[in-house]
Specification:
The chain is 31% helix and 26% strand. It has 317 residues and is an alpha/beta fold. The protein folds into 2 domains: 166 residues, Rossmann fold (3-Layer(aba) Sandwich), CATH 3.40.50.2020; 141 residues, 3-Layer(aba) Sandwich (Rossmann fold). The strands form 3 sheets. A 7-stranded mixed beta sheet has the order 10-9-8-11-12-13-14, sandwiched between helices. The protein has a 5-stranded parallel beta sheet with strand order 1-4-5-6-7, sandwiched between helices. Helix 1 crosses helix 9 and helix 2 packs parallel to helix 3.
Length: 317
């Protein structure tokens, strides 16, 4: 039984089910806090547990509504700091604004860096997150970052399926590294799709580098946002004679027309994790399956609390 009064885990409003599952894994009660709204819409937070001198973790994904969930996280961090917590770790299963990580044209911000600065200024001593859109985002923080990967959970699931005659397909050139790792996990072949992007939500999968005819196909990505890329890729591999098609991603953002596209796509299964809770609309898409990252997060929290290695978790991939 893992029970330690010096460790406190609090939940934001974005994903209370995941926070509860993490506490269940650790056999700890969820930290008490009351979150209310003033009549003008401002949020008010009050901790109901004593945190003085304790090791505190706040679990909050900055998913939709992004700005509201981010602001709540900042309020939580400031509250814990002013309540004299010894160490504060921001556990951010899904880190919003991660894709705004560079100036790809003139007169635009680097919002991912801004958010990193805000989290640090609010009082976080550490960050624990899963599958940042680019690993180098860790360098945006001036505090330690433990960067976990959904591959730990997703690989176990597909390994148990014992898929034969497998080709892992990268839906775009930027995802080749991840696809290569998955191909290595399962001993499958690798294929890459060349795409043309016309706008933030409009893409066209135009050609496949590799063989998919008669193959079981696994498409892996870190995020499914508007699903334009992955659905275009699924249609293309189906046209080229793929047998069963599986899609997996750590973060199911499902923005814009994503759910409509996924419901129509010829995919046998779409597997995501619970870094972002499914909406009621997403639950209606029958082939979406959700895996929990609670055990992985719980183990990382336990090891952080005990000052043990977190990177050794990756040895099981």
């Amino acid at each position: 039984m893992f029970l330690n009064d010096n460790l406190k885990i609090f939940s934001g409003s974005s994903n209370p089910a995941l926070s509860g599952a993490v506490c269940k894994y650790l056999r700890l009660p969820l930290g008490g806090a009351k979150i209310e709204r003033f009549p003008d819409g401002e949020k008010a937070l009050k901790l109901e547990d004593d945190v003085r001198g304790r090791d505190c973790f706040v679990v909050q994904s900055t998913c939709k509504p992004v700005d509201e969930n981010l602001m709540e996280l900042l309020i939580y961090l400031d509250c814990l700091r002013r309540a004299s917590a010894q160490r504060i770790t921001a556990v951010i299963p899904y880190f919003g604004y991660a894709r705004q990580d560079r100036k790809d044209e003139g007169r635009v911000p680097i919002t991912a860096k801004l958010v990193a600065n805000l989290i640090t200024a609010a009082g976080a001593n550490r960050v624990l997150t899963i599958d940042l859109h680019a690993a180098q985002l860790q360098g945006f923080f001036d505090i330690p970052v433990d960067h976990l990967t959904g591959e730990l959970v997703l690989s176990d699931y597909f390994r148990a399926k014992k898929l034969s005659n497998l080709t892992v397909v990268s839906p775009d050139v930027g995802n080749i590294k991840m696809a290569s790792r998955y191909a290595g996990h399962f001993g499958g072949d690798l294929a890459i799709i060349h795409k043309k992007r016309f706008s933030g939500s409009e893409v066209e999968a135009s050609e496949i580098i590799g063989k998919v005819k008669g193959k079981n196909v696994l498409m892996c990505d870190d995020i499914i946002a508007t699903a334009g890329t992955v659905c275009g890729a699924v249609s293309l591999v189906k046209q080229r004679g793929a047998a069963k098609i599986y899609i997996c991603a750590t973060h199911g953002v499902f923005a814009g027309q994503a759910l409509e596209r996924l419901a129509k796509a010829p995919a046998d299964e779409i597997v995501v994790t619970d870094t972002i809770p499914l909406t009621q609309e997403a639950k209606k898409v029958k082939n979406i399956k959700v895996l929990s990252v609670s055990a992985m997060l719980g183990e990382a929290i336990k090891r952080t609390h005990r000052n043990e290695s977190v990177s050794s978790l990756f040895n099981s991939v």
